[in-house]
Amino acid sequence: MLTPERKAQLEEQRRQRRRGERAENVASWYFRLNGFLSIPGFVVHPDQQRRYPLTEADLVAVRFLNSEELIGGRRMVDASLLTDLAPAPKTLFLLVEVKYDLCNINGPWSERSAGNMQRVIRRIGFAEPEQIDDIADAMYSHLRWESQSAVLQYVSVGKRANDGRQRTYPKLKQIVWDQIADFMFDRFQQFPEKLPSDGRTVHEQWPDFGRAFGRRFRTMTGRQDAREFVWSYIDEGAK
Question: How many C-beta neighbours within 10 Å does residue 12 have?
């Protein structure tokens, strides 16, 4: 029989897990709106048979060099936080780590001896076999690799930027929830055509957070409302 202390501990673990899932939901929609094709929960498998995977990336995403979306003949401008990572004409690949609060880097991605960078680069498939070790070395050292045609970038998403990690890895890209909320508010303010006309129903193809944001957007008066809604959704879920 579980003690009250153990029950409270398990409930807190469930609460944290649900918050993490909602945070990944928000981040996934942000990258989707910016033209990325993505795989959530990208599992890195070991070279030899074993019971458990080695690690996973919360999101692996790619944005191709000619990506754009037109609405009524107008081109949507994607977030410069992302497009500036890959000067044209380059394909942008991202390894994304999503945190509820402080941005960070998972240990398996910073430990050279584990070899996880080589595995994920090999599985994504954009590099020749003889390039993999050099690309992985650049990622372990800088969390960024760039060639004439492609960029591989590590991105950490969370509520607060991690100054310590930024000093260690100056090329690390950190994106906070307020920046994501600002982008979403601006996108739908500039392109209200993306929202359903009746202001109540939203596209069923949208993820849970997208539907919640779409329903609430018409009552927002500015970026601050969007910021408060994004954080409330991550913290407590849709109401």
Answer: 10
Structural tokens at position 4: 């009250």
Beta strands of the chain (E only): which ranges? Answer: 37-44, 55-63, 70-71, 74-75, 91-98, 144-146, 150-158, 173-176
Q: What is the pLDDT of residue 217?
A: 92
Q: For 18, how many CA atoms within 13 A lie in the half-sphere containing its CB?
A: 12
Distance CA 166, CA 103 (A): 10
Confidence of residue 175 (pLDDT cuts 50, 70, 90): very high
CB–CB of 63/79 below 8 Å?
A: no
Q: What are phi and psi of 124, to 5 degrees?
A: -60, -40
| Among 15, 9, 26, residue whose Cα is nearest residue 159 | 26
Residue-wise pLDDT for 104-162, tens only, equals 998 777 888 888 899 899 989 999 999 999 999 999 999 999 999 999 999 999 999 99
Q: Is the confidence at residue 49, as pLDDT, over 60?
A: no
Total-model pTM: 0.89
Can you tell me the distance from the alpha carbon of 91 to that of 103, in angstroms, rounded to the nearest whole number? 25
Q: Cβ atoms within 10 A of the Cβ of 82, count?
A: 22
Strands (DSSP E) along 45-143, which ranges? 55-63, 70-71, 74-75, 91-98
The DSSP bridge partners found for residue 210 are none
Q: What is the overall mean pLDDT for the chain? A: 88
Cβ neighbour number for residue 24 with a 10 Å cutoff: 22
DSSP letters along 37-53, please?
EEEEEEEE--SS--SS-
Q: Each residue of 188-237: pLDDT tens digit? A: 999 988 776 555 555 666 778 888 898 899 899 999 999 999 999 999 98
Residues β-bridged to residue 214: none
